[in-house]
C-alpha cells in the first residue's frame, strides 16, 4: 500500500517535531543531571560540616546520630535522583535517533474519534498537552500492533478488554532522525520489513526485534500466566530473541515489584552471554543476571574437586568415530567408551535421582560416614564416635538438623580438648616462635587484667597462659571453621557408597539401585577411581551436589523471581529437577529445540519431556515455533531434511543461494578450497564467517592449516574465550550454539566425521548457524545425514574446482 505524498510529508514533519521535542527534553535533563551531580559532589565534600558530632552525654550522642542519618538521607535522595535522571537521559538519547517504528490508528468501540498510536522503545509524553507522542512497545495498547492486521481488534488492560477497530497500520524505519522507509500494511507485521532486517549482516551482539516481533513470538513475550513457560522452537525461530524481549516486557509490566537482578538467564556458554548482553540495555533496561550451569557447579564444588565441564564430556562422547578406525581400537577401549556412555545416561536420569532420595531416607537410619576430627596429628573424635553420636539423636530429626546439633557438640568437644592440650610441650615451643608484637599484645592484656583483678598474680604463669591461648586459638580456628562448614561429613565416601558393594548389613549402598544400567561394574569402578583422584566427571556433578544438599541442607535462592533457561534441551532431567529446587519461588521460561540436543543425556527427552513434567500440566504452557528466521529459505530447506520431523519447519521467504557440498579427497586441497571460498565471501562483503569443526582438536588443526593461506587474521574460539570478534574464525560446533554467522563453512562434514546417529543433531546445530551462505566441505564421502535427504538436489560434488570457479 503506497502512501500519498501528503501523508508522507505529514509523517516527515511529525518526526521532525517529535525529535525536536525530545532534544529539548534532553537539554533540560542534561542541565538537571549536571546540577544534581554537583549537588552530590558538594554534599559529599561537606558531609561532616553539616553533621554536629557531640558524644558528651547520651542525649548529645542521640542527636549526633540523628543529624548524621539526616545528612545520609539527603545524600542518597540526591544520588537516587541522579541515577533516575541519567537513566531517562540515556533512553531519550536513543529515542531521539529513532523515535518510533510503528503507528496504529485505533477507534475504541463507542467512540467517534480515532487515536494515532506511535510505538517506540520507550514512551514520550508531551507534558504541555498531556498526550503521549510515543507509546512504549510494551504498553497494553501496543499489543495491537503485533497481534492484528487492520480490522476488528482487541487488547487487554489491567481493567479489562478493550475492543475497537484498527483503521491504519503503518511501519517506519527511522535512522538519525530521518525516515528511510515507511509503508502501510494490511498484514500483522509486513514481511518486507522483516526481510530487510534479516538480510543485514550478522553481528557479534544480538539485535533487538521490537519493530518486527511476530504474532507467535508476542505470545511468548507477553505471557504472564504460566508458572513454567516452555518454548519449543526450530533453529533460528527467535526463541532467544523472544525470551530477551520477554524479560524487558516483564520488567516493564511489573516495574513496581520486579527488578533485573531478580531474573537469571542460564546460557549454554560464556560466549553466548556476551552475545546477548546488549539486547536489554538497547531496550533501556538493565541486564538480568547471566550465568551458565557450569559456572554454578564450579562455584559450589570447585573447592572440593576438579569438576569436568560439559564440553570435555562432549568431546569424549565425540571420540566414538575415532574408535571405528580398526587400527586403533581394542575391545577394552570400546567397552570403556560404552560403559561411560551408559553411566552418563543413568546418572542424568530421574531414576538415579529417586535412588538418591531413597538413599537419603536410608541414611536417616544408618550408613552415615564422617571424617574424624583431627587436631594437629591427634584424633579428637573418631569417625565411629561421630557416627555413634549422630544416630543417638532422634531418627525423626532431619539429616541437616542433626548435623546442626552435631556441629555444636563437636565444637564443645574441641574446646574441651584444647583446654587439656594447652599444657603440652609443643605449645611452649610455639610460644618461643611468637612475634614481638604478639608478646607485646599479651603484656598489655595482662596489665589491664591486673588493674581489675588482684595484682598478686604470678606474672610469669599468667603471661605463659595468655600466650598459650594465643597459640591455641590459631590452631583451633581452622578446625572450628571446617566443622562449621560441615566438612566432617564424608561426602565423597557417601557418594562413593552408592557405587560400592555393601559392607555390613544395610549400609546405604549400591544395592538401592534395583535396575542396574549396562556396564554397571565398570561404572562403579570408574566412579570410585575418579572420586579417589578428587575429580568429578560432569555426569556426577549434579547428583553429587544433590546428595550433598539432601544431607547437609538445601541451599535455595528465594530472591530470584524468574529463571530463563536457554538451550533447555541440553539439561538432563536431573539438572532440571535440581534447578527447580534451587529456585523454589520463581517462574521459569525454558527455551529449547529437541533437534539441537547435543549431549548424550538429552536422549532421555525422546521418552517423556522432563521439562513439561517438572511443574505438571496445570502450571505449564507450551508454545511451539515452526518458522525459522535466521537462514535463507534455501538453507532452511536443506537443513530441515537433516532431522526427523524437519518438514514441520517453515522457512521465511528470504532467498539466497543453495548450500554447497564440496567433496575432496585430500586435506591439502580441502584447505586451499576453503581459503578460496573465504576470500570470495570476504570480497562479497560478508562480515562474519565461521569455519565450524566438530571438536576442539579439529579446530586447532584447521586454524593452523588455514592461517597461512589467508590474508586476513583468523580467530580461534575455545571454551575459554569470553567473547568473539567479527571476521573469520574457527569454532568447535558445540561452542557455536545459539550464535549465528553470515556464512558458515563446515570444516569436514564427511561420513567419517559425522557417521554416528548421536552426531546428527550436532551436525544440524552447526549447519543452522548460517544466515546467508552455507558450505559443507567433506574429506571423502559427505555424511549420510545430507546425502539421504531430498535436498540432495542442492549437492554439487565431484569436481570441486568447478564449484569454486
Ligand atoms: N521477529 C523477528 N524480527 C527480526 N529478526 C528476528 C525475529 N525473530 C528472529 N529474528 C532473528 O532471527 C535470528 C535467530 O533468532 P534467535 O537466535 O532468537 O533464534 P533461536 O530460536 O534462539 O535460534 P537457535 O535455537 O538456532 O539458537 C536472529 O538473528 C534474530 O534477530
TrEMBL record:
Q: Which UniProt keywords apply?
A: ATP-binding, Helicase, Hydrolase, Nucleotide-binding
Gene Ontology BP, a term: recombinational repair
- Pfam families for this protein: UvrD-helicase, UvrD_C_2
Supply the PROSITE patterns for this chain: UVRD_HELICASE_ATP_BIND
Q: Upper taxonomic classification of the species?
A: Bacteria, Bacillati, Bacillota, Bacilli, Bacillales
Q: Enumerate the residues binding ATP.
A: 233-240
- Could you name the Gene Ontology cellular component terms for this entry? cytosol
GO MF terms on file? 3'-5' DNA helicase activity; ATP binding; DNA binding; hydrolase activity
Q: Which NCBIfam families match?
A: HelD_BACSU
Residue stretches making up the UvrD-like helicase ATP-binding domain: 212-632
Protein name (database record): AAA family ATPase
InterPro entries tied to this protein: DNA_helicase_UvrD/REP (IPR000212), HelD_bacillota (IPR048228), P-loop_NTPase (IPR027417), UvrD-like_ATP-bd (IPR014016), UvrD-like_helicase_C (IPR027785)
